[in-house]
Amino acid sequence: MPQPSDTPLDLLLLPTWLVPVEPAGVVLREHGLGIRDGRIVLIAPEAEALKYGANEIRHLQGMLLAPGLINAHGHAAMTLFRGLADDLSLQRWLREHIWPAESRWVDEDFVRCGTELAIAEQLKSGVTCFSDMYFYPKVISELVHRHGVRAQITIPVLDFPVPGARDADQALRTGVALFDDLKHHPRISIAFGPHAPYSITDDKLEAIRILVAEMDAGIHMHIHETAQEVQEALRKHGVTAPIDVHLMVEPVDRIIPDFAGAGASYITFHPEASAHVDRNLQLIRGLGCKSGLVFNPATPLSWLEYALDKIDMVLIMSVNPGFGGQSFIPSALDKLRKAREIIDASGFDIRLEIDGGVKVDNIAQIAAAGADTFVAGSAIFGTGDYRAAIAAMREQLAAAG
Fold this sequence. Notes:
Layout: E1 11-18, E2 28-29, E3 31-36, E4 39-45, H1 46-49, E5 57-65, E6 69-74, H2 90-105, H3 108-124, E7 127-133, H4 137-147, E8 150-157, H5 168-182, E9 188-194, H6 202-215, E10 218-219, H7 227-236, E11 244-247, H8 256-261, E12 266-269, H9 277-286, E13 290-295, E14 313-317, H10 332-346, E15 351-355, H11 363-368, E16 373-375, H12 378-381, H13 386-400
Helix pairs in contact: 3-4
């Protein structure tokens, strides 16, 4: 901590709570933060901080002072398109609505208004730095400079005309010039944005790779934003293994055809998410996929009573869906046993899958309860050796018979 000197701080902030970057997870109470020459030079208990003197002191009672948040993926000016057909699949949303709307409406004034609104909304939410990929990047850079925030401004590069660039080459020339103009700016960096694998060719990607390597610039690209894109990429590159799609969305009706068309083998959904369970099970099979229902921990198996003839898989959730790394819910074992009884009594060829908290030390017990298909995430990807983790699980299953 610096010692008090004859040079006062430019600004001393005295919040009720202060959250430093380091050490992580710490909240300081009644501490001060001192700034001199645009830099943080002091974090100290309030009584100590006041000894330094300051040209300006701000008492922030009842307020928490924390580092600004970072928005790592943005198209700021698209705040003006908020709500436009946003209930559609990505490709329909882009091709039938967003790209036509951008072609008609987006110009420098549109970008200026939309970006300024986005900056204001982000600041109100505590976001002080954002990465942005949108048209007329020079306009965006002017606003970032004016409003005192930080940003990575990415030059969008696509294989077809977009607002502000008639082709990819013009977009790249604009980016190079803006990079040269702002390479010493303290709050702005320029990156290059090949939009996505479906909107730019491989040869242009290679040209951008060479360019950014020479300039020491960054690349920001949309890659596999949706499960559908992941499926399509797997099939495109020769992956023939079954693809099991578990839809945790509502309603499911609209997107089932998208995943079937992208190469799904199994499509399962939560019965609570559909007003027409029977119809959707038939739809999945009609599209050439195998169908199934998913049961959350508190969802009864009674949905199966009139649907077994249209089901190829029953998925039992042994955690509450939402995030990885949760512990296995023991009552799922009883639910598995009941599901196995129902399936065996039906005479239909139906897989019984389990998802949530499946690990090396419980997979044999889960199999003994009736499961024949296992979903494991953290137990595999949380290790340093995926192959060894899978092998250990298979050994446990083999030992259990």
